[in-house]
Amino acid sequence: MKKIMIIVFALFALVFLSACNTNGTFSNDNEDDLKKDVIEVKEENDELMKLTIEQLAMYNGENGNPSYIAVNGVVYNITGVSAWASGSHNGGVAGTDVTELIGGAGHAESVLADLEIVGETLE
Description:
Blueprint: H1 2-18, H2 29-36, E1 49-51, H3 53-56, E2 68-71, E3 74-77, E4 88-89, E5 92-93, H4 99-103, H5 108-113, E6 116-121
């Protein structure tokens, strides 16, 4: 029952958030289509999301959305990570693939190991 309530709440929140864009106006059909096309929603049982790069862009920490980044096809949750509090860190931006940027960071592997894996990219 708890899982069903969480899923219903998540779907309600997704529908509510999809009605508005960052300007507080109704979003265009393309954004709505991307949100509807999210293949799997992360549930309590830790199923992984499968996101296109366009869908990943929705997870930029704005409008109540969590912040995610992708590295080598793996999507990590950076919500609450202080280094990413502004939505960017050392040239990387939340909601994007930062594979090339993070490759040059000496601490990349140890930092990624501490992050929650929430999905994978489809592209």
